[in-house]
Structure formats: C-alpha cells, structure tokens
Amino acid sequence: MKVVWKNLDKDMTKNRIRLFLVIAFFLLSGMLYSRSFYGGSLAMGRQSDAETLTAEGFDDMPVQININQAEERELTRLPGVGEKLAKSIVEYRRENGDFQEIADIMQVSGIGEKSFEEMKDMITVQ
Known about the structure:
The protein is mainly α. The chain contains five helices and two strands. The protein has two domains: 1-45, no CATH class; 49-124, Photosystem II 12 kDa extrinsic protein (DNA polymerase, domain 1, Orthogonal Bundle), CATH 1.10.150.320. Residues 40-58 have low confidence and may be disordered.
C-alpha cells in the first residue's frame, strides 16, 4: 500500500509541474504578444496621451493635440516643435492663460505663419 501512495504522490507532483509549465507558457505568450502589439509597452493600466501618440502603429493616425492642456512632451509631436519651443508654449500659456483659438499660438515667439500652417490641422483649443 505504501508503494502505491508513493507512486501516486510522484504522479501528482509531475502533473502539478506540467500544469505550472503550461500556465507559465500561456502567460508569457500573452505578455509577449501584447508587448509586440502595443509597440514595446505592456498594456498595464492607462497609457498617457503622449505614450499613445508615440506607440507603434499610431504614427499615421491624425492627431489632435489640445494646446491648452498638452505637456511639453506632447507638444514636441507637432511639426517644427522641439523641446525649447514646447517649453515656450507652456510658459506662454502659464503667463497669459489658455489660447482662445488655434491661431493664438502664433503669439508664442518662434511660431510664425509657416509653422502655424504646418500644425493647424493637428491642434485644438477645446
């Protein structure tokens, strides 16, 4: 009788190990799939708008950035806007309040009509 229980114990242990390996395989497969689908970031929790805008596969989508709420990082997505100009936009907004219309962004030093024409379809003042 003892021999039967020992064999049964070994079989149960082997089955537990197999079950663990199968579950681990599916979990890892799912993580790798979501990582490749979401452009290198696991979809755990809500992504910020800036992360969504830069995620692989979203670069070709039309983007509307609210210039009254966007952070510097988001503003750099606009054509011709680097870190320095993004900082100027945020500083202007802090000193003068929200933009009333999208054309008001031309009041920021460094943004003229040419720059505005390139970005006007990508900005909003909701």
